[in-house]
Amino acid sequence: MKDDFYDFVAVELQNSLPDSRRIFYKEKTPEKEFYSISHAFVALTDGKKKLVNIVVLPLSLDLNPENKEQLLTLRDDLIFKDALLIVINEETAEMRLGNTGVFISEKLLIHCPNFIWINCSREKKSQMTFDGIHYEDLRSGFAKIWNTTVTYAGPMVGFQSVNLEIMRSTCWKCQREIKTVTGIVFPNRQLNSWNDVTWQYYHSLVSLNQIKGNTADLIAEFVATLRQHDKEITPVGYKYSNTIKSSYFAASCSYCDALFGNFYVMDERMDYLHSLGSRVDGSLTYHSITLNVDRYLIQCVFDSSEACDHTTDAGWGSK
Fold first, then answer.
1. Are residues 171 and 310 in the same domain?
2. What is the pLDDT of residue 262?
3. Which of 38, 60, 161, 266 has the most CB atoms within 10 Å of its CB?
């Protein structure tokens, strides 16, 4: 990769832009900040015109706690203004994050239409990646953003319809047939009926033990309403586990009140993920519920991937 990572990014960016695109400013650096907003311009991204801000973080940069707070403040400010922040960092090798890359991955990255993380690898000869797997020239990656062949797909902050998942099962204690509430999924389309194979959900289920606060209360109320018409559906609420010596949001048997721990539920659920037929035969059923989704729930979606026919990728990627 070029010795001067800033210059390298500038050249690749300029070569990716249409001739008519006007860059508003270059190297605008607030006096008290360490970072440089290298370029800013208006572009059509993800179907909307947005002010694009690019921050370049070279391999030589050693972030201290103050630097990290400055980047977090910048991110929140730009997202609040509905601008697009593109963070480009440099690494030595593919799939090997340095301190800056780890900070971006664990703290700075937000999965939304207003944040793009581009990782460039010296080992890959100036190539970049959106997802850590597929690499291409940086100018090609830029061009895909401007011509909207790369867009964001997935859950977003705010009110939206998600699906409560219910699994046909048998109580481990009393052996009676029940319908276990497992958690929520974020569908990639909205339908009137969910017992078909024409939809997928993003990445993975958000299990009950991950759900907290007001969201847990709303789900518990929704499940109570469903149980008025079907007593086999398990009630949900905060239950004490002798195994982990604490309480968490979970399902319990409709008949004997036995707690269904997350490991037990997920292990049984795996049997239904091998085929989409589990939706058609009623092994897995889904009910739409509107929730006010926050960053925490979205991060739960991205923290794991079930990688099966039921799921689809989320984040920034090709259409």
1. yes
2. 87
3. 38
